[in-house]
Specification:
Structural class: mainly alpha
Distance between the termini: 91 Å
Number of helices: 31
Shape: globular
């Protein structure tokens, strides 16, 4: 019953049907195409073995096997040629008769007996897991397959270990980046090159110095409770500010030490127990207990990676070292220059003339690629969409909005709302929100709104009285038309229209169609020939409140949008995003995606430090941009275009020197 669902049954069935001349390979002196042979084999099995071709949901009980010569032969081949059923039966009988003793052992690495299965490549896998994931599974084999059986040294390249350790080490260029590094490393011995940044954190009471067991460590205020669990008799100077920790603090010393070891192994290469014990000023036995805990969770692997004592390394870091050792990344992903990366981005975002999209489907693809990126309202149809969609028409965006596929609205809170939220002095008057065509607006798919729209401050002091009444009417009615709002508020249509524009600029409301926003962009559309106000252009479509449905920003969803927008993501790209969270949160999400085999990590663009991540399909496009190196792809774009971020990465042209 189990082998009937395996792919080998279908392959053996076609082979037996061909051998029995039931399926002919030649007809009329010509060879029958393989796809026709497969179709006729499927028709044959449906005729003689109906349950095998039937849907499993329509069957009840075991599959009924007919008494047919080809079916019997195929099952016999599967059981005795592809599998050794007789040998398995003998082993099971020997186990039952106590002739063979079984012993269950939990090991942190695959047994040498299963290496043949792990190295079977795609023939042993029935799922669609990427090749990188299977390579990651084979990492542990590098520690048991030795080149020198006498000393047991591994065969990992030492240069690859040093390179990956350097890439994984935190990038610190200011006090905020040092604070992020301390959040990961938890305890850090003092470093002279970062001392100025640490003094800044101490002055802001965001970090402190911890003295324990004759050693000195730098600790952030958020991680101080965890460090005190490891060092209960420690002293702190000066006392930092009390900050609530976002993560639970372990009660046992071993669990807290495991978190410290986890952070260090995620930020560097392999380390021995002695090195970690000396670095953390703790007993080696405690370090070993913490490492066993992480090893049991599958986070770290042990081995002799540098040819010396036994070491421990993070699984993700070891997978990257393994790939570099084999030379895969060196051959496939040679770093490109910044100019090549800019050419790639122009093609990736379909601005290069040869890569532009067409029609409604092309417009939807561009919106999905740029969703979450705020651009002035006037620039969307003036420069952004026409630069990416050949022959762009306004009807494309209107059809997507009215069909419910696309929404628009402001995602970031207005500065006036932030001021009203932060400033509590009654003498300061809050800034008024003025509608303008430069209001930052984002286009995004309606299905992704739940992860993009964030609840704005409830303080409406920055809104006019008419805007507050219109907002209350929209909240009461749900999704009213323009006429419903006019009748409900008993205000002039012109007042309601100005109030709606103010709410749009504040990020409070949105409309069904994009045409309502065009009247704000082009004031002449709302005025008559003699300057008198005509019929409001916003009267078509329903208005709804742009309310957030979630309080938490999803870093992984934001990382996926960055990858879709840029193809290659690193810190200098991410920090230029308007809605970007802290880089450390995005970095953790990117590392998780790399560990799952969804993206690749490494060095893709030269001239930039820190970890870089790329989509698999972007790697090939990046290499193609390097091979062609056509400067015609880099064309003039609007000042508000997202590609200005890529152009800002190019080095500034040299300035002429004055004559002496």
């Amino acid at each position: 019953q189990a082998l009937l669902d395996a792919p080998m049954f279908g392959a053996r069935w076609r082979w037996n049907a061909t051998r029995a001349l039931t399926i002919l390979r030649m007809r009329g002196g010509k060879k029958v195409p393989p796809q026709f042979q497969r179709m006729r084999a499927d028709d044959l099995i449906a005729a003689v073995f109906p349950d095998q071709a039937a849907c499993a949901e329509n069957l009840s009980g075991p599959i009924r096997i007919p008494d047919h010569v080809l079916v019997r032969e195929t099952i016999d081949n599967c059981l005795r040629e592809a599998m050794d059923l007789d040998g398995l039966t003998e082993i099971l009988q020997a186990i039952e008769g106590k002739k063979i003793r079984t012993l269950a052992i939990d090991t942190p690495e695959p047994s040498p007996f299963c290496h043949e299965i792990l190295n079977a490549n795609p023939y042993a896998y029935l799922d669609d897991a990427p090749l990188e994931e299977r390579r990651a599974r084979a990492v542990t084999l590098r520690r048991t397959v030795r080149t020198d059986p006498e000393d047991g040294a591994g065969i990992l390249d030492q240069a690859a270990i040093a390179e990956v350790a350097e890439q994984a080490w935190p990038l610190v260029r200011d006090a905020d980046e040092l604070h992020d590094a301390l959040a990961t490393l938890i305890v850090l011995p003092p470093l002279d090159e970062w001392r100025d940044y640490f003094e800044t954190l101490v002055a802001e009471r965001r970090a402190t110095t911890l003295h324990a067991n004759g050693a000195t460590f730098w600790v952030s205020a958020e991680r101080l409770p965890l460090a005190r669990v490891v060092y209960p008799e420690s002293t702190v100077s000066p006392e930092p500010a009390e900050v609530a920790s976002t993560q639970p603090v372990p009660e046992r010393m071993e669990d807290a030490l495991a978190e410290i070891v986890r952070g260090w192994l995620e930020s560097g290469g392999p380390l021995t127990i002695a090195e970690m014990a000396a670095r953390f000023a703790v007993d080696p036995a405690s370090v070993e207990v913490a490492l066993i805990k992480l090893e049991t969770e599958g986070q770290v692997l042990r081995g002799r990676f540098r040819g010396g004592d036994e070491e421990f390394c993070n699984r993700r870091i070891l997978a990257r070292i393994h790939r570099l050792t084999l030379g895969t990344l060196r051959r496939e992903i040679e770093p490109v220059s910044t100019a090549d990366f800019v050419r790639f981005v122009f093609r990736w975002q379909h601005v290069a003339p040869s890569s532009r999209l067409h029609g409604i489907d092309g417009t939807m693809h561009v919106i999905r690629q740029l969703e979450g990126y705020e651009i002035p309202a006037a620039a969307w149809e003036a420069s952004i969409l026409p630069a990416r969609v050949a022959g762009y028409k306004r009807e494309y965006l209107d059809r997507l909005c009215y069909s419910g596929d696309v929404m628009w609205g402001r995602l970031s809170p207005h500065p006036a709302l932030r001021q009203a939220e932060l400033v509590e002095a009654p003498s300061l008057k809050p800034r008024r929100i003025r509608p303008t065509k430069l209001a930052p607006i984002s286009l995004f798919a309606r299905e992704d709104a739940i992860s993009l729209v964030v609840e704005h401050p409830e303080d409406t002091a920055a809104l006019s009285h008419a805007a507050r009444e219109v907002l209350e009417e929209i909240e009461k009615r749900g999704a009213p038309f323009f006429g419903d709002i006019v009748r409900g508020t008993k205000r002039l249509p012109s007042e309601v229209e100005e109030a709606l524009w103010q709410l749009v600029a504040a990020g409070q409301v949105t409309a069904d169609g994009f045409d309502a926003l065009r009247s704000l962009i082009d004031a002449k559309r709302r005025l008559g020939e003699k300057g008198l106000r005509a019929r409001p252009r916003s009267s078509s479509g329903r208005w709804t409140k742009l309310a957030g449905e979630t309080d938490a920003f999803d870093p992984e969803a934001f990382a996926r949008r960055l990858l879709a927008r840029w193809g290659v993501v690193f810190r200098d790209i991410a920090v230029r995003e308007t809605l970007a969270p802290r880089w450390r949160e995005v970095l953790l999400a990117l590392r998780r995606m790399e560990a799952r085999g969804e993206i690749r990590g490494g060095r893709f663009v030269t001239g930039y430090v820190g970890e870089q991540f790329a989509l698999p399909e972007a790697i090939e496009a990046l290499r193609a941009a390097r091979r062609t190196a056509d400067d015609a792809d880099i064309i003039a774009v609007s000042d508000y275009d997202p590609l200005r971020t890529a152009l800002a990465l190019l080095p500034a042209p040299p300035q002429p020197q004055p004559l002496q």
